[in-house]
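ok so I'm stuck.
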Amino acid sequence: MTTEELKALTVAKSVDARGTACPGPLLEAKKAIGTINSNDVMEILSADEGTKVDIPKWCGKQGHEYLGAVEENGYFKVYMKKK
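replied:
not stuck anymore, here's the structure
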């Protein structure tokens, strides 16, 4: 997806993990995934570079759809869709 498409997504859940280092953002995402419905989009906010690798890997293992990431000022917004 393009940056514009990602920014236009309707997000069911936003997880702010900017204050945590790896593997904190992934653990926060794992906790939050149970609170949304199938096909809902979740956004993970993280300042940790590893999140851009960890979330896509986890999505692949779990069958969720990794949608992409947008770089903001000092952090990333990572988007995924629950299977």
